[in-house]
Design a protein that fits this description.
The chain is of the alpha/beta class and 248 residues long. The protein is built from 13 helices and seven strands.
Length: 248
């Protein structure tokens, strides 16, 4: 358990693993952790993305460091990690919630954008890049909120340029996961913001249509960072979905 931030433990509920997005940590879930714990769930936040260089290696570490059936809730890159863990050990993953994510591999254009950003990070211009891209991370209403943007930029800068570079490389190298979806037998929640410019709703629609047991939720007035932008709505969606899951 030393590799995880343990927030709450009870003997009767599922173990929920929150998987942060790229260059994020438990702070991405700051509004979800209290709500999940108040509902009696066992909650841990995975940090394997900060300790391993590829999504497959992250998934193997995640599965090795935790025991029993897992409910994986991942945002953005965390959703990609959840899919890798499910592919590696389908009987271990009891359910998944894939927030603001995609099963597709990066396009050549996205790889070029990430590669250019890595050069900027290496040259010490991470903050400039993050601020320039804030409009893509948030709903337009929230992109104009200077305090929220400062909070986000500070969060990522705290994780640091080394992690920004390493995790971008891991995401760039990922496989196309769409061929895996038809074989996923566990219940899956697919959720996205209605104004997500980084992982548009069409990508969530694609996953929900391909998964055998899926529920799609679109969160209004939210962009890519909907856990911060619409925390109460995200909490309600997660808690309702968790309550409807079959017993482990």
């Amino acid at each position: 358990m030393s590799a995880f931030s343990v927030q709450s433990m009870t003997a009767t509920m599922r173990q929920i693993v929150l998987l942060p997005g790229l260059a994020c940590d438990a702070a991405l879930w700051r509004d979800q952790i209290p709500a999940l714990c108040a509902a009696g769930h066992r909650v841990v936040v995975g940090d394997v993305a900060q300790r391993h260089p590829s999504l497959p290696e992250m998934a193997r570490a995640l599965l090795a460091e935790l025991t029993g059936p897992l409910v994986l809730i991942g945002s953005s890159m965390g959703g990609m990690l959840a899919l890798h863990a499910q592919q590696a050990a389908p009987t271990r993953v009891a359910a998944m919630a894939l927030l603001s994510t995609t099963a597709q591999a990066d396009t050549p254009a996205l790889i070029k954008l990430r590669s250019d950003a890595i050069v900027e990070f290496q040259q010490g211009r991470a903050e400039l890049v993050l601020r320039a891209n804030a409009m893509f991370a948030f709903h337009p209403d929230h992109a104009a909120d200077a305090a929220l943007v400062d909070d986000y930029v500070g969060h990522v800068l705290r994780i640091g340029a080394v992690q920004l570079i390493a995790q971008n490389r891991a995401v760039m190298a990922r496989a196309d996961m769409r061929p895996w979806l038809a074989g996923v037998r566990c219940p899956v929640l697919v959720a996205c913001g209605d104004s997500d410019l980084l992982t548009p709703q069409a990508l969530s629609n694609e996953m929900a249509s391909a998964l055998p047991v899926a529920q799609l939720q679109v969160v209004a007035r939210a962009g890519h960072l909907m856990t911060w932008e619409q925390p109460e709505r995200v909490n309600a969606v997660l808690l309702q979905w968790l309550a409807a899951l079959p017993p482990v």
